[in-house]
Amino acid sequence: MRKYETIFILQPELSEDDIKSVTTKAQDVISSYKGECLRMDDWGIRKLAYPIKKSARGRYYYLRFDGDSALIAELERRLRLDDKVLRYQSVNITDLPERAPEKKVELPDAVTEETVEETPAAEEAAE
Questions:
Q1: What's the CA gap between 98 and 93, in Å, rounded?
Q2: Other C-beta atoms within 10 Å of 92: how many?
Q3: Would you state the CATH architecture of domain 2-92?
Q4: Domain regions of the chain by residue span
Q5: pLDDT per residue over 18-68, tens digit each?
Q6: With the C-alpha atoms ordered 95, 101, 38, 72, is the resulting torsion angle positive or negative?
Protein backbone atom coordinates (compact mmCIF):
# COMPACT_ATOMS: atom_id res chain seq x y z
CA MET A 1 0.00 0.00 0.00
CA ARG A 2 1.13 3.52 -0.74
CA LYS A 3 0.90 6.57 1.49
CA TYR A 4 -1.13 9.55 0.29
CA GLU A 5 -2.06 13.05 1.40
CA THR A 6 -5.17 14.81 0.17
CA ILE A 7 -6.04 18.40 0.92
CA PHE A 8 -9.51 19.56 -0.01
CA ILE A 9 -11.17 22.94 0.34
CA LEU A 10 -14.85 23.24 1.23
CA GLN A 11 -17.17 26.21 0.95
CA PRO A 12 -16.75 28.34 4.09
CA GLU A 13 -20.45 28.86 4.84
CA LEU A 14 -21.33 25.15 5.17
CA SER A 15 -23.10 23.91 8.28
CA GLU A 16 -21.48 21.36 10.57
CA ASP A 17 -23.79 18.64 9.19
CA ASP A 18 -22.69 19.34 5.61
CA ILE A 19 -19.03 19.29 6.61
CA LYS A 20 -19.49 16.05 8.51
CA SER A 21 -21.20 14.45 5.49
CA VAL A 22 -18.26 15.27 3.19
CA THR A 23 -15.62 14.04 5.65
CA THR A 24 -17.63 10.89 6.40
CA LYS A 25 -17.94 10.13 2.67
CA ALA A 26 -14.17 10.49 2.27
CA GLN A 27 -13.53 8.11 5.17
CA ASP A 28 -16.11 5.65 3.82
CA VAL A 29 -14.39 5.56 0.43
CA ILE A 30 -11.07 4.83 2.12
CA SER A 31 -12.49 2.01 4.25
CA SER A 32 -14.49 0.48 1.35
CA TYR A 33 -11.29 0.22 -0.75
CA LYS A 34 -9.42 -1.45 2.14
CA GLY A 35 -7.38 1.64 2.90
CA GLU A 36 -6.45 3.00 6.29
CA CYS A 37 -7.24 6.57 7.32
CA LEU A 38 -4.32 7.75 9.43
CA ARG A 39 -5.20 11.40 10.00
CA MET A 40 -8.00 13.90 9.31
CA ASP A 41 -7.34 17.50 10.31
CA ASP A 42 -9.53 20.59 10.04
CA TRP A 43 -7.20 23.48 9.21
CA GLY A 44 -10.03 25.98 9.49
CA ILE A 45 -11.23 28.80 7.27
CA ARG A 46 -8.48 30.61 5.38
CA LYS A 47 -8.25 33.22 2.69
CA LEU A 48 -7.78 31.78 -0.80
CA ALA A 49 -5.06 33.03 -3.12
CA TYR A 50 -7.74 33.82 -5.70
CA PRO A 51 -11.55 33.57 -5.71
CA ILE A 52 -12.97 30.13 -6.53
CA LYS A 53 -16.65 30.00 -7.48
CA LYS A 54 -17.00 33.56 -6.14
CA SER A 55 -15.63 32.52 -2.71
CA ALA A 56 -12.68 34.42 -1.30
CA ARG A 57 -12.34 32.05 1.67
CA GLY A 58 -12.45 28.29 2.12
CA ARG A 59 -12.38 25.63 4.85
CA TYR A 60 -9.28 23.45 4.46
CA TYR A 61 -9.12 19.76 5.39
CA TYR A 62 -6.03 17.54 5.46
CA LEU A 63 -6.40 13.79 4.98
CA ARG A 64 -3.55 11.28 5.29
CA PHE A 65 -4.16 7.64 4.41
CA ASP A 66 -2.75 4.40 3.00
CA GLY A 67 -4.28 2.87 -0.12
CA ASP A 68 -3.86 2.07 -3.80
CA SER A 69 -4.52 3.85 -7.09
CA ALA A 70 -8.14 2.65 -7.33
CA LEU A 71 -8.84 4.30 -3.99
CA ILE A 72 -7.38 7.62 -5.18
CA ALA A 73 -9.41 7.49 -8.39
CA GLU A 74 -12.66 6.90 -6.50
CA LEU A 75 -11.92 9.49 -3.80
CA GLU A 76 -11.11 12.18 -6.36
CA ARG A 77 -14.20 11.24 -8.41
CA ARG A 78 -16.42 11.70 -5.35
CA LEU A 79 -14.77 15.00 -4.42
CA ARG A 80 -15.14 16.27 -8.00
CA LEU A 81 -18.88 15.48 -8.05
CA ASP A 82 -19.61 17.14 -4.70
CA ASP A 83 -20.65 20.79 -5.10
CA LYS A 84 -19.49 21.59 -1.56
CA VAL A 85 -15.85 20.94 -2.51
CA LEU A 86 -14.08 23.89 -4.14
CA ARG A 87 -10.69 22.24 -4.79
CA TYR A 88 -8.75 19.10 -3.91
CA GLN A 89 -5.30 17.68 -4.50
CA SER A 90 -3.83 14.27 -3.74
CA VAL A 91 -0.12 13.56 -3.47
CA ASN A 92 1.74 10.25 -3.21
CA ILE A 93 4.17 10.58 -0.29
CA THR A 94 5.45 6.98 -0.25
CA ASP A 95 8.88 7.76 -1.72
CA LEU A 96 9.48 11.02 0.11
CA PRO A 97 12.21 10.89 2.75
CA GLU A 98 11.10 11.26 6.34
CA ARG A 99 11.72 14.70 7.76
CA ALA A 100 14.79 14.81 9.91
CA PRO A 101 14.32 16.37 13.32
CA GLU A 102 15.55 19.91 13.52
CA LYS A 103 19.03 20.23 15.01
CA LYS A 104 19.68 22.81 17.64
CA VAL A 105 22.89 24.71 17.03
CA GLU A 106 24.74 25.76 20.13
CA LEU A 107 27.39 28.45 20.10
CA PRO A 108 30.57 27.91 22.08
CA ASP A 109 30.73 29.66 25.44
CA ALA A 110 33.77 31.68 24.32
CA VAL A 111 31.72 33.70 21.82
CA THR A 112 30.33 36.83 23.44
CA GLU A 113 29.23 40.21 22.19
CA GLU A 114 32.65 41.66 23.07
CA THR A 115 34.51 39.22 20.82
CA VAL A 116 32.31 39.89 17.79
CA GLU A 117 33.71 42.75 15.72
CA GLU A 118 31.42 44.94 13.67
CA THR A 119 32.06 45.13 9.95
CA PRO A 120 32.43 48.52 8.23
CA ALA A 121 29.12 47.98 6.36
CA ALA A 122 27.31 47.43 9.66
CA GLU A 123 28.81 50.63 11.10
CA GLU A 124 27.67 52.64 8.07
CA ALA A 125 24.15 51.21 8.30
CA ALA A 126 23.96 52.16 11.97
CA GLU A 127 24.69 55.82 11.22
A1: 10
A2: 12
A3: 2-Layer Sandwich (3.30)
A4: 2-92
A5: 999 999 999 999 999 999 999 999 999 999 999 999 999 999 999 999 999
A6: negative
